[in-house]
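Target protein
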Amino acid sequence: MLKAVHHIAIICSDYPASKRFYTEILELEILQEVYREERDSYKLDLALNGKYIIELFSFPNRPKRSSFPEAQGLRHLAFQVDDIEKAISKLNKRGVETEDIRIDPHTGKKFTFFSDPDDLPLELYEN
């Protein structure tokens, strides 16, 4: 029935800050940016390695949502990396704080968490 995840939608509070974070810090590619006047909203389509992955939205007066990793609902978004130390170093040099590296007790793989400008929990998970 299901083939793949088509995209992930994120509503941000500060569109320029989030656009910069996802495109300049995480280096996602902009596929399309649209301003929807009737909604006073931007929609930014982003790709990772050429594959459409994230829709970044701005909406006025949006309600806040809990986003801590242990809150009910969507827990976090995880990005696969080949070298977690190298990825962490790159993020840290760009002003992004990361947690200490943890080891997944079931796979033995390294992972860590960091946050986007709205405190959305993001994860790096090493191959």
The radius of gyration is 15 Å. The chain has a mean pLDDT of 91. The first strand starts at residue 8 and ends at 12. The chain has two domains: 1-60, 75-127.
